[in-house]
Amino acid sequence: MSEQAEQARKTAEALEYLTGFGNEHSSEAVPGALPPGRNSPQRAPLGLYAEQLSGSAFTEPRGHNRRSWLYRIRPSAAHPPFTRTDNGALRTAPFTKAPADPNRLRWNPLPDAAPGTDFLAGLWTLGGNGDAGQRTGMAIHLYHANASMTDRVFSDSDGELLIVPERGGLLLRTELGLLSAGPGEVALIPRGVRFRVELLDEDARGYVCENYGRPFELPDLGPIGANGLAAARDFRAPVAAYEDVERPTEVVNKFCGNLWSATYDHSPLDVVAWYGTHTPYVYDLRRFNVIGSISYDHPDPSIFTVLTSPSDTPGLAGVDFVVFAPRWLVGEDTFRPPYFHRNVMSEYMGLIEGAYDAKAEGFVPGGGSLHNMMSAHGPDRETFDRASAAELKPQKIDDGLAFMFETRWPITTTPQAAGADHLQRGYDDVWQGLQRHFRA
Length: 440
Hints:
Blueprint: H1 3-13, E1 17-19, E2 25-28, E3 49-54, E4 67-72, E5 83-84, E6 105-107, E7 123-131, E8 136-145, E9 152-156, E10 160-167, E11 170-174, E12 177-181, E13 185-189, E14 195-199, E15 204-211, E16 236-238, E17 249-255, E18 258-264, E19 271-276, E20 281-284, E21 305-310, E22 317-324, E23 327-329, E24 346-354, E25 368-371, H2 381-389, E26 395-397, E27 400-407, E28 412-413, H3 415-418
């Protein structure tokens, strides 16, 4: 392990957090940095600048309003002009370079990154939907990296970023403090929050959902009651930590689909204190409280929803984040793997570790599958045959961790994803051999 990764790991292991999703958190790295009783006093404490970062319109309902007050060494307004820079393999909606494909698609993991590739340079867009400029829809990216971001900071004006590590841990230095996320955890970076990614291992790989729409929130529980699924208290927010660094720092902003760059004479991660609701989080997926059937039938996958971005239609999400966590299967007279189905929603599935119970082979950690709106899918032939003949005793599913980005609109793939060398050309073959068993 490099000295830089070793130092990042030591920092990550010593982190402390605030807890609770959607809370009005407050934190100060220096006592007295938060002004009491008001947001923008005539002279902010300790010679700091007061600045509000709004992730929603001022007049949105209180329950949906996202904003944080930051008390920083220099105001964000003090910067030189931004200029266009290379987008690399990063793409943004609307995706118009190719028609939406009704075929079922599956990819192997991204190949290893070229030496010196950091998180930002290693982002690779698979596809998405909607329009970033209209703040609707989402995009699916993958990342591969073998270098930490050095004197470089990134922010996304187009949407919030849900980062799902599959290999290698990440130290995320954000304006509001530090987060650490490794395989089995997810990190949520709100729209517009600046951050830098440092690697905790020699390389890193994973998935990113860029949500252009309403910010992710915890789903309503309905008849489930007051408890279950992802608990708000298990989401960890950072405590204030600041950089007082005066050296050239590249600040890259994703704005309406393009990357724009400016070189500051200081680090913009200089927030000494903050409070509010526009907050980064990290969440351990193994803490998800799975709800399932204790009688018969396989429940709909909506019971595995961790976070949801609501749309203007109740119950129809712009994007859901779903996790298939370890659980018991006990259904009687039940085909226990996910059933065959066609869905009005579009589903991208990734695998963090182990195996997925509906696919016997070909679906590997770091890879992913896309089943667009109304495409028929379900267990492969080997899984169907095995599950149809299995003895129905209680069974623990604990040898894999899979997830799904589910969205209301079809996902259009980018040309680079449609023509990628790691696209599996024979994916349809997994359903070949499903024989006729009908007897009149």
